[in-house]
Design a protein that fits this description.
The chain is an alpha+beta fold. The chain is built from 19 helices and 12 strands. It has a 4-stranded antiparallel sheet, covered by helices on one side. A 3-stranded mixed sheet has the order 1-7-8. The protein has a 3-stranded antiparallel sheet with strand order 4-6-5. The chain is globular and about 65 Å long. It starts with 6 loop residues before the first strand and ends in a 7-residue tail after the last helix.
Length: about 375
Amino acid sequence: MAKYIPTLQATLDTYLQWRLQQQQLVRRGELDLVRTVRTCGWLPPAAGIPALALFVRGYDAAPGDLEKALKAGSLMQVRTVRGARMILERSMVPWAVAASGPALEKRWRAAWRAADVPASRKEAWRERILSELGNRERTREELLAALPQELTRKGDASFNRRASGHDSFFSLLLTEMEERGEVHEHLGRWATAAHRFAGSLLPAEADPLEARLRVIERFFAWGNVANAEDLAWWGGWPVRECEAILNAGELPLSHLVLAGSRASGLMVHSQFTDSLKQTKATREGPVFALPGRDPFFVHQPHLLERTAPEGAKIFRPHSVTPRPLVLRQGRPVAAWNLQGNDLRWEAVGRMDPTLRKQIDAVLARVTTWMKANLQVTIDD
């Protein structure tokens, strides 16, 4: 029998104001990089994105701070939901991998069939990779040099089309093994999970259902709200399974009626109901320039799609990845990009002279920081 799930009502403006605080964009305490990632959301490791996301949250030395955390191993990069790479706190690594592995097992089968590779040969290659890694770490080039040439040869056009970016058997098999939690790449060096996480819970030892529940709770703990379809997209899981999980009452969730939006069937973490009730939407507030893959957007793009101004060009072409956006009171008001020394922005919401000045000022600050700290540009 399903447990009772309480219902909470809030306006979209109230939710967005509250989420700016939850995402550490408005209310900042003592800076703690691991806590920020745990609280705000896992970071997609695309060049420049994590550092800029941290900079707008108060980490002026973001590139260096992030590099130190990665070298220390308090933050790590793993393949998790939908097979995407994310930077997350070390304690969540086994759960993040175990939650997504079963859902990813079938996605490369067509590529192996197209290449006519028998299961026995593929298994032999897998064992060889594990053997060559053993209890040591190797770069990709070192590992490649130690493997049979048949494993490292390029696939044909049919294989490449189905392998989605993988041009060799080695590349695809290594990705599969990484998705299953058998091997792990960190700072350019590969190792078996047993070697890299010795003494810790391994992804293969984590119960998949418990892992999924933990990861879903972490998703909601970032201040996200979602219906079953949103959650299924984010995790790469079947919608029916997400519906069952959300309605079972196993997670501390509440229904959320978000007035002033086109969203429906949403749920929110119950630990936030009191703070959300106490939040008061304001007419004035800071303006923020965020990268498109910022945790504020990237984990719930469909909510952004349903709450953005009608017709606003806030997403990259043919994608659910938002463009770099400027927010006022949590709502997108402009899209921006920096290409070389050329900074451009265009309005996607209501505009007035005061807001134009605010956008120019915040983007000037971001541009100065990017040119001093990043070797990449943020574009569309």
